[in-house]
Amino acid sequence: MTDTNPNPLPTPSTPPPDILRCASMELVVTDLQRSRDFYVDVLDLVVTEEDEDAIYLRSMEEFIHHNLILRKGDEAAVAAFSYRVRSPEDLDRAEAFYRELGCPVKRNSEGFVKGLGDSVRVQDPLGFPYEFFHEVEHVERLAWRYDLYSPGALVRIDHFNQVTPDVPRAVGYMETLGFRVTEDIQDDAGTTYAAWMRRKPTVHDTAMTGGAGPRMHHVAFATHEKHNILAICDKLGALRLSDHIERGPGRHGVSNAFYLYLRDPDGHRIEVYTQDYYTGDPDNPRVTWDVHDNQRRDWWGNPVVPSWYTEASTVLDLEGRPVPTAERTDDSEMAVTIGADGFSYTRADEGAESMPTWKQGEYKLGHQL
Amino acid sequence: MTDTNPNPLPTPSTPPPDILRCASMELVVTDLQRSRDFYVDVLDLVVTEEDEDAIYLRSMEEFIHHNLILRKGDEAAVAAFSYRVRSPEDLDRAEAFYRELGCPVKRNSEGFVKGLGDSVRVQDPLGFPYEFFHEVEHVERLAWRYDLYSPGALVRIDHFNQVTPDVPRAVGYMETLGFRVTEDIQDDAGTTYAAWMRRKPTVHDTAMTGGAGPRMHHVAFATHEKHNILAICDKLGALRLSDHIERGPGRHGVSNAFYLYLRDPDGHRIEVYTQDYYTGDPDNPRVTWDVHDNQRRDWWGNPVVPSWYTEASTVLDLEGRPVPTAERTDDSEMAVTIGADGFSYTRADEGAESMPTWKQGEYKLGHQL
Amino acid sequence: MTDTNPNPLPTPSTPPPDILRCASMELVVTDLQRSRDFYVDVLDLVVTEEDEDAIYLRSMEEFIHHNLILRKGDEAAVAAFSYRVRSPEDLDRAEAFYRELGCPVKRNSEGFVKGLGDSVRVQDPLGFPYEFFHEVEHVERLAWRYDLYSPGALVRIDHFNQVTPDVPRAVGYMETLGFRVTEDIQDDAGTTYAAWMRRKPTVHDTAMTGGAGPRMHHVAFATHEKHNILAICDKLGALRLSDHIERGPGRHGVSNAFYLYLRDPDGHRIEVYTQDYYTGDPDNPRVTWDVHDNQRRDWWGNPVVPSWYTEASTVLDLEGRPVPTAERTDDSEMAVTIGADGFSYTRADEGAESMPTWKQGEYKLGHQL
Amino acid sequence: MTDTNPNPLPTPSTPPPDILRCASMELVVTDLQRSRDFYVDVLDLVVTEEDEDAIYLRSMEEFIHHNLILRKGDEAAVAAFSYRVRSPEDLDRAEAFYRELGCPVKRNSEGFVKGLGDSVRVQDPLGFPYEFFHEVEHVERLAWRYDLYSPGALVRIDHFNQVTPDVPRAVGYMETLGFRVTEDIQDDAGTTYAAWMRRKPTVHDTAMTGGAGPRMHHVAFATHEKHNILAICDKLGALRLSDHIERGPGRHGVSNAFYLYLRDPDGHRIEVYTQDYYTGDPDNPRVTWDVHDNQRRDWWGNPVVPSWYTEASTVLDLEGRPVPTAERTDDSEMAVTIGADGFSYTRADEGAESMPTWKQGEYKLGHQL
Ligand SMILES: [Ca+2]
Ligand SMILES: [Fe+2]
Ligand SMILES: [Fe+2]
Ligand SMILES: [Fe+2]
Ligand SMILES: [Fe+2]
C-alpha cells in the first residue's frame, strides 16, 4: 500500500482488547413488524427472543444469543457495531483504550441489550458506535437442524462495512485496535478508496469505504453455497419484492466472494456473501486493486449502481442521537470510475477503449444509449 | 393471447416436416482463430472436426456431428438455423411446404455442410435461412466423460432466438410449421412483443422477439446447474474477458430458466441457460407476461441493458447475401419499458411509484442519478 | 442388444395409444397420516386435494391435478401406474389395444380418481395395473413460487420402475405400446437384466428390472440440482429418519443421472433423480452396460445394497387383489454380481482382481472382513 | 467430556509454539509418476515445484510453497505432519517444548524440504513426525485464476487425522500444545473413541482416532461447494478409477461437513471436505456424539466400511524408519458398532430394533442377507 496517512489518530499506550470477530449489529427500524417480515419471513433469520420493542435474530450456525437486533425507533439508524472479545478482561482493555483516545465510553455490567453480560460501548474516533462484549447467553447451534433450513439459509454473520471520509486514517486506527488489512482499492496516485480488515481469518470483519461518514454501509451474512444466494433472489421475485435487490448477485473481485446486496424496508443495506478465503497467516498477502479496474467490485464487470456508492445508514452516538457526517475530501470512487471524468477498464493495458461500445455506456452516469 | 394477426401468411396445403428440435446454428465469423479461442478455449465446446474454413462444435451430451459451425467469412452473419427432422421423408415435406409458400429452396443430398446427409435449405417467409436435415454422422456422446468436463460445461443446444418485426405474423407461420407457443409478452392493448415456441418439450426451440428483422438475436446452450453458468463468468473474469458478458447472470421470468448472455468476438450473442420446465402436454398452459412487469425478463428485476434490445446479427440468404431488414411498426419493448414514456413495475397494483428511487432510475434510458 | 425374446407377446393389430408421459402412481398405504408426514412434511410434495381416504400430491412444476395418490388400505400395494395420453381418442385406442391382448379392461368416463376425466384401467399382459387418461383438472404450476420451495424441492415426476421376470418379453410388449429402449444391462451370453424405456425424451418413463414380478420397484421424482437431493438426506438426518435412505445418493451409470433411493413408511421405494439427457431423436444411441461393470448402477462403484435387488411392492389387479408373482428364471443380477459366484470389476480388462482388497469385499454377500 | 486421562503425558514448563494451522503433509510414495497422475491429473492439485525425487503440490487458494509433498521411497509412509507457526521465535519454543518432553528433535535452519526456511522436526510423544516452520516461500495464490479451476478444485488443506491407541492421552498432550477440542465420540461408560482439535477456527487441524498407532489416517483438502466433491467422484468414474473411492460421499455428523474418502495409489487416505463451521470463540460448545449413533460419522446413516476403521499409513521417525505401532486397549469403534456384539441406532430412544431389517444388516460385519 503506497498511501500515506497524513492525519493519524494517536496510538493508545494501553493494549487493545483481543477482538474475536464481528458478532452483531443493532439496527433501529421504523416499523418493527415490517422489518420482521423481511428478516424472518423472507430471509429466514432465526428469532432467539422478541418483545414489543426489539427482535433478536441469529444465523443457523450461531451459538451466541444474536447476530442482529431490530429495535423500534423513530428514525432508521444503526445503534451498535458489536464485537465479541476473547475474555472478560478484554472489556477493561477496551474501556482503557478508548478512554485514552478521549472517546465517549459507557460500560454496563448487565449488558446494554438482552443476551449479553458485561459490555462496553464507545463512540470511536471515527464516530461509530462500537460495542464490545464477552459474556453471552448460549443458544442452540442449529447447524445440524436441516429440517429448519430454507433454500437461502443464512449461516453466519460475516462482516460489517463502514463509510468514513479518510480511509488511511481509519485503517491506521483499526490497526492499533488489532485489525489487519487483507485487501484495498487504490489508484496510481496513492489515494485509497476502501480497505478490508480482519480479526478472524476471513477477508474481513469490517471494511472502510471512502465517503461521507460515519455511516453504516452494510452488514453481511454468509450462506454455504452460491445457489443459496440465488434462492434468496428467486424468493424475492416470487414475493414481488425483487426491488429489495440493489446490486448483484455477482462475484466480487475484492475478497473473491460471491455476493448480493439487499435493502431492507428502512433502506439498511444487507449483503449476502459466500466463499472468501483463509487469511490467518501473519504474512497473508495483501491484494491491492486499481480503482479503475472494473472487475475489482464485480469480477464479471457488471456495473456498480450509483445508489450503492451514495446511500448508507445514519449511525447513532451513545445518547442515541444521529452522528453528523463529514464529507470525503479525497476523490470519490464513483467520480473516478463512472463520473463524467471517470473511467473503468477490463484490461489495464488496453484501457477503456477496448471495451465494447455498449459496455462503455454502462460506466458513465447519465450515459445510456 | 388476445393479440390478432392481421397480416397472416398463407397456410400450405401440404403437411409440415416433423421437426424434432433445434440442432445447430451456422455462424459466419471474421477471424476463425479468435472465434475458436472463444468457443473452444473459453466456452469449452467440443471440436468434432475442423479445417481452414470452418470449425464444427458440439456440446457434451450431443451424439450428432455438430451444434454450432463457425465458418470464416468477410462479414459476421448467420448462415443457417438448423433443425433436425424425424425421418428422411420429412425433407420432402419441408421442400414441398416451403415451395408452396413461394420461398427460395435448395436441396443437397450430400448435405450443405460436413456431418450431414440430405438437407433442405430455405429462406423462410420471414427472411430467415432455415435448414432441415435428418441424416447425420453419429459421434461420441460425451455425457459420461467427466474427465473432459470443465466447470462451465455446455451440455446441450437449447434454442434459437430470432428478431422479426411482426411477432403475431411470425407465430402464425411457426404454428403452421408445427410449433406451439409456451409463453409470450404482451401489453393490455394486445400488442405482442415476443413469443416462445417449442417442438421438443422444453419452453422453446426458438423464440420470436419483436424488432427490425430478420436478424438473429441469440443461440442458447444448456448447462446442468446454475453454478456452471457462474463458473463461465468467473473464467471470463480470470481471462480479463469479462466484457463479453452483456447481461446477467440472472433468473428469467419467461421460461423460469437461469441465464447468461455473452457476445462472441464478432458480437454474435450466445445465451447460457439452465432449468426450464416440461411443456410436452398439448394443453400445456401458456404463460403471458405483461410487458411492464419488470420481472418478466429478469425475475430479480435487474434491468435489461439497451444493447440487448437493439443489437442482433445479420442473417444471410441462400446465396450468402445479407438479408435487408424491415423495421418493427408496433411499439418496441424498450420504448414502452425504459424509454422516455415507458415504465416498469415490481408490483402491478402499486405501479412504478412503489419502487425505491434508486431502482426507478435503472428503468429510464439516460436517467442515472 | 443381442438378446432374443423367445416368448413374445402378440402384437395387437390396433394402434397403441399415444402416450405422453408417466404421470402419476396410486399407492395404497396402511397409515395415511404417517404417509402424509413422509410425503408432505419430509419430501414437501404439494397437496392438491385430500380427504379421509386419499391424498392427491403433485410436484412443483406440475400443472395437472396429481403425480401421486396415497390411498388408505389394509395392505401396502400399488393400485395404478398412470400415463397421460395425447388426446381423448387415445383412450379408445388403449381400450382396443388391451382388449385385443385379452387383458382385463375397465373404463370410467368420470375417472377412477379425483382430478381425472375419462380413464381406462387395464391389467396389462405382465400383470401391472396401468391407467391411461387425457382429461385432467388443471392446477397452479408452482414453478415460479420460490417462496414455497424447500431445499429439496421435487419438481417433476420422472419415471416408474417395474419388476418383471422376463425382461426381453416385457420390452417387446412395451415397444408395441410405443416405448423405445434407451439403455439396458446385459451380459456376454445375451441375458438382459434390465431395460429403460421412454416416451417423453428423457432416459425413461419406465424401466423393467428382472426379478419376481409383477412388482413395483420404485417411482421417481426429479429435482433441479444435485444439492437438492443432498438436502433431502440432510433433512432426514435432522429428523432422525435417515433409515429411510436405502441406497445413495450417487451417480447412476445407466442414465447418467444423480440419484437417491428412499423407502416410505410402508416400504414403497421412492427415487429422487436429476440430470439425465435428451433422448428424443429416433436414432438416439442405445447404451448397453455389462452386468459385471460395477459402475453400471453406481458410477462411483458404491455397492448396491441387497434389499434394493430383492424388495419391491405388491401390485393390485383391477379388483384390488394382490397380483401373484412369478419367479425370474434367467440369472439374477444380484447373483451374478455379488452372489457367491458373482463378480464385478472397475476395469473390464483387468477384471475384479485389480480392485483393492477392501473394495472386493463389498461385492460379495456375506463377505465382510 | 466425561472421560478421564489416567496416563497423562507431562506438561512442559515452557510455552508451546503458537501454531497457526496444519499446513502440509509429506508422503512417501513408491511410484512417483503414478502418484503424480493421481494428485495432479486426477485431483488437479497444483505443482509448485518438482524434481526426480519429490513433487511439491498446493491447493488453489494457498500462497505458501506447498500443502503436500510426494517423495519417492521404497515403502509407503508419512514423513511429516507439518504445521505453520506464527513467528520465527515459535520454532525456539517448539524445540524447547519437545526437548523438555524428551522427544527426538532436529532443527534445520535451511528447512528439511524445499520452500521452507528454519524448521523443527520432532518425533512427538505419540510417535508422530511433527514439523514446525514459519519462513516459507510465497507463491501465487490462484484463488482468482478461474481459468485454472477444474470441476473438483481443491482450494485449501483442511486437516490431518491420526490414529493413536489412547485418545484421552493424545488429547491431553495436544491441549498442552495449544489445541482445543471441538467434537468427540464417546460412549456411556466414558470411553473416548475419537476427538477433533483445532488451532485455526474450523472444526479441526487434526483429529485423533482410536486404534493401533501411531499411524496416519488421512489428510483432508477443502472444496468450495458440495458439487465439487461429486465432480471428483464423477471424474474417477470416467477414468475407471472409481475403486479409489473408499467411503462416501456423504455428510458427516461430526463437523457437519460434506465429505469423501479416497485412497491414493499407495493406499494413503485422502479426504475431500467442505462446509464445517466457525469454532473460534473460546467457549465454542463441544459436541459429543454417542458411538452407537449411526449418524455420528455419516449423518445419512450410510455405513462406515471396515477398511476405513482398520487401515492407515505407517509413519516414519526422524531417521526415516517405520515407527512400530501399539494396539488400542480400549474398545474399538468398529467392534462396538458393527462387530458381533456391536450395535448402532438411528433413534436413541428406539434402539437398533426400530431400523428396517435391511438397514440393520448393514451394521453387522459378515451379516448380509
Ligand atoms: Ca447482475
Ligand atoms: Fe461486504
Ligand atoms: Fe434465450
Ligand atoms: Fe429409477
Ligand atoms: Fe477428516
TrEMBL record, chains A, B, C, D:
PROSITE patterns: EXTRADIOL_DIOXYGENAS (PS00082), VOC (PS51819)
Keywords: Aromatic hydrocarbons catabolism, Dioxygenase, Iron, Metal-binding, Oxidoreductase
Domain VOC: 21-135, 156-275
A Gene Ontology molecular function term of the record: dioxygenase activity
Signal listed as a keyword: no
InterPro entries the record matches: DHPA_dOase_Mn/Fe, Glyas_Bleomycin-R_OHBP_Dase, Glyas_Fos-R_dOase_dom, GlyoxalaseI/FosfomycinResist, HPCD_C_sf, VOC_core, Xdiol_ring_cleave_dOase_1/2
Pfam families found in the cross-reference section: Glyoxalase
Keyword Oxidoreductase: yes
Co-factor(s): Fe(2+)
Similarity annotation: Belongs to the extradiol ring-cleavage dioxygenase family.
SUPFAM superfamilies linked to this entry: Glyoxalase/Bleomycin resistance protein/Dihydroxybiphenyl dioxygenase
Protein name per its UniProtKB record: 3,4-dihydroxyphenylacetate 2,3-dioxygenase
